[in-house]
Hints:
mainly alpha
Amino acid sequence: GLMRLFGVEHKVAAPGALIGASNFFELAVATAIALFGPGSGAALATVVGVLIEVPVMLSVCSVCNRTRHWFP
């Protein structure tokens, strides 16, 4: 996307993508528990979202490494 368009180096673009993709998960869990209670569906959904984040982030790392040649 934009990192490639702006000519950002891979060593900066890859971590930027990971940070952008994972922002605020912990805050979402805390907010859902505080607003709806620990037994609510909203809290469960946010916790499951965080658990799903790990394999998704590993996939993003794989994509970042496979597209290394796209960056200067």
